[in-house]
Design a protein that fits this description.
The structure is a homodimer. By secondary structure, chain A is an alpha/beta fold. Helix content of chain A is 29%, strand content 23%. In chain A, the strands form six sheets. In chain A, strands 8-7-6-3-2-1-22-23 form an eight-stranded mixed beta sheet. A six-stranded mixed beta sheet of chain A has the order 9-10-11-12-15-21. In chain A, strands 17-18-16-19-20 form a five-stranded parallel beta sheet, sandwiched between helices.
Amino acid sequence: MINNTFTRNSRHKSPHRRSHIPLVIKKPHDIIPPLGDSIRIIPLGGVEEIGRNMTVIEFGEDIIVCDAGIKFTDDETPGIDYILPNTKYLEERKDKIRALVITHGHLDHIGAIPYLIDRLGNPPIYTREFGALMIQKRQVEFPHLAPLNIKIVDANDKSIPLSPNLKVRFFGLTHSIPESTGIIIETPYGDIVNTGDVRVENENGVPVEKEFEQYKIFKDRNVLLFTMDSTGIEKPGFSPSEASILKNIDSIVASSPGRIILATFSSQIERIIEFINTARRYGRQVLIEGRSMKANVDIIKHLNLVDTSIVIPIEDITKYPPNKIMIIATGAQGEEFAALARISNKTHKYVRLDRSDTIVLSSSVIPGNDRAVDKLKDNLYRSDAKIITYLDSNVHTSGHGKRDELKWLHQQIPYKYFMPVHGNHFRLKMHAELAAELGCPRENIIVPDNGSIIEIQDKGAKIVKLLEKAPSEDMVVEGLSIGDLSEVVIRDRKMLAADGIFVIIVLVDMRTGRLKKSPDIIARGFVYLRESQELLSEARGIIRHSIERTTVGMNPINFDYAKSAVTEDVSRFLFQRTAKKPTVIPVILGV
Amino acid sequence: MINNTFTRNSRHKSPHRRSHIPLVIKKPHDIIPPLGDSIRIIPLGGVEEIGRNMTVIEFGEDIIVCDAGIKFTDDETPGIDYILPNTKYLEERKDKIRALVITHGHLDHIGAIPYLIDRLGNPPIYTREFGALMIQKRQVEFPHLAPLNIKIVDANDKSIPLSPNLKVRFFGLTHSIPESTGIIIETPYGDIVNTGDVRVENENGVPVEKEFEQYKIFKDRNVLLFTMDSTGIEKPGFSPSEASILKNIDSIVASSPGRIILATFSSQIERIIEFINTARRYGRQVLIEGRSMKANVDIIKHLNLVDTSIVIPIEDITKYPPNKIMIIATGAQGEEFAALARISNKTHKYVRLDRSDTIVLSSSVIPGNDRAVDKLKDNLYRSDAKIITYLDSNVHTSGHGKRDELKWLHQQIPYKYFMPVHGNHFRLKMHAELAAELGCPRENIIVPDNGSIIEIQDKGAKIVKLLEKAPSEDMVVEGLSIGDLSEVVIRDRKMLAADGIFVIIVLVDMRTGRLKKSPDIIARGFVYLRESQELLSEARGIIRHSIERTTVGMNPINFDYAKSAVTEDVSRFLFQRTAKKPTVIPVILGV
């Protein structure tokens, strides 16, 4: 007889494991009341975090979805690729979805399209041309999906009717990628305005004329609800202007004696365009390094946003003197295999740094990347090249407005209700406080969570947050699967990462209850086994003793009991000897 | 017959594993040339990182070791508790060690004492009284160790002879913990000066009188080598003064309508003392929350550094009105179980936040802690309490001087040679550049790595960095063990964290080569097994097929071959189906 109950369904059979792994209890969905004649607004992502932006606007028989972004993961969710907004609410109302409307082409606004568009019933996607190209570029990596139904729109164009009651209109604004827009959803009771990501170009804190132009359409509009990016709320003042950054980069390029390497986010497309213009001014050829940077420059080229005739392939780098070269590269965040990392650690095929090189890290450090960036800088400083970062010099500004920029935007758009979005809870609260300071009555301000159901009721007369919530548990992409985040698997991974695993395999003679041979042990991530032979040998003794104490003379043998006992004995022994708590798993086979 | 070669020493037997896990090749130690009449300086830690500071000074028959710190770990080394300086060089020269001298009582300067003092032959430890108490407090957690031989010294005292040729002298300077000192090692050829961690108290960029006082001893000294903290070099200008921070906190306390909660590092002892003084000024009782905070306040009390009679136990919080309460707490870095976290997530036994509370996060965010701090702030903002951080208001300044403070220090201490320490490589390089700008000849500046052997030769006439290095591989504390960092174990842990483990157990009939039963599978951290029964069932089929294809009719059965084949087949199958690469481990038992 062979006992295999443990290994088939072990997690829920072992009393030992159950003792320290609480069950994941899923709450039944609250029963969401019917819509009635309210306008419903549901942020499905992006309001308890930065990333995975998606907001639902529902009225009558129609739903418009705004943006479909991903969030990147961190060490809280090892092994997970991306986190998606939870779309269960939409899946249950798929037939009502008239459109997915896109503010701009960054991944936290478009990255979830390949994973979710099917679940939304493949609605048409309304976007400006640049966003469309970014979406298409990403879609190429998912060849099995049906073609997207993309409808390219202009900003400041006429409104586009999406249903008898809802129209959408796009308006241009400033961010860090071409054709960034805000969105106006026109309802019978007034406009719902979503800025998407936004900053305000300014000269020493005074917005430039173009900014006033962009918002003058709001002079005559009836804005019922205003929702706005809160990413930069924590930082006081205005950001340095992009123009001042570019001027500064220009003078760095002008005075660089050799090659200049400009590293930035590949998503900073407007800046990349200006880098190429700067190269032209100084007679430098441009080399583009990094896969995402190349892809985005292809889009720039396709749209003819800049003359790219001076862009040459990296193989041609030797054909020009160093002072005629500009390299635009990815990797300023210390990404391990990016172009700049390879340049810094001397594994790049064509570039070795020397004293005449100048490297500009034209980006800030994204929280969480500090150590990677320090490592990058360490490697760069091993060379004699000149390194310039945003700490020393004005070489980066954020695409997200700081507090005074947000304040100015509030003043351009007269509105009745305000809902801060795009940011952690504390950022939304700070943004709500700003709106209150600017005169918005507190009862007109709503701070949502993911899945909060906000209703504008009584033809616009009041705004409420329902007690019920739309499903909002994390949905995740892991390898090929899209689904709920399994807390159990994540907890196992964290335990494995900290203490490793210790698997015990024993063959028990069913007649005598004795071990047929010395136990086998498989350990990974626990201790270095080669140097722990004594520990293993002692462990084998304990295993044999623990099991035979239970099984010898027992008839029939209770395997579950034996497993529970040996797990406990071995765990205690390993902890006493090492102060580590590996996941101990016994396999007892009867022969 | 039972085959167990795999499980005993599996890592180095499986061709599959070897193909993607490179061997760790240990370099033989370089042969270090004899000392001769040079003065040797070897930073064993703290110069390719921030943390684990330790520097060796060797001359003739004597060695003095300066500081013995730990470094905290990050996600690059899961499961590791601390990283220590590598002391092999010292262990081989234990008899020469005359003293361990301590600059101040922070863990990155004293934390390694319990782990290393034995390896250094238990030399006497020279420290100021505050440092001694911090050392003793930590030592209590290691009751099995021999008592330390601590010698308490004063700053600005006479020199202490440690050997015929070497004397040591301590001088007071400003950091963020009481009795911080710099150290002068007097050699026959001149002084070796190490500042330890240092800042410069100033008023709007003008050092205060006390600072000039502290360094006036250097007017008449012959400083051969100057080594100095580089932590803050990247940041331009002067830091805000501690006095301005305290003034600001004072006015926050003055205007707070209810309880005030001040959260800071427990290591910010001078600030904690002033918080208590502030409470007294406003008639508030003080509650100390957090284990390390309490321990440090006990030391403050023991030394009578402040009148602690207003410090009351937390149970007494209800005896006073809210506006008579000040809570000083740990947890401003978002530490998961710290007092502030418990207050923020409503699990604290005595404190629930309300609108009248004011919380001050009197600390900056340490790189790597950003997400934890965001989470803390999210929870705090769920309450209606008022939150003040260093971004809004001047409530924190660093204990490490910024660039202009370092510059001013260079100007106070005339020296011949300069070696920047305490910081990543890029910080040392920036600090070296500063010294060069200030007039130090470049050939007189040495930028070391961990283990670099610096020699001042020819009675002080020149300084060189030898080609040979002292052993400098990471030493780590993990549970109860202290030893080399096992790259293999760490790599396994990272793989386990990302993709989990998939163990296959099969019983093969030795006569027929057929499986005796359906294979057992143990997976952890891979996919959620309950929802993957189909995948498991297919995997069982593949395992059976793969093994029997090899073993049926084979005599004797080649277990290694079968294992290698099944590992490959199963890995390929799992990757195709999930795009995940779990660590696949086969166990084949013949019966």
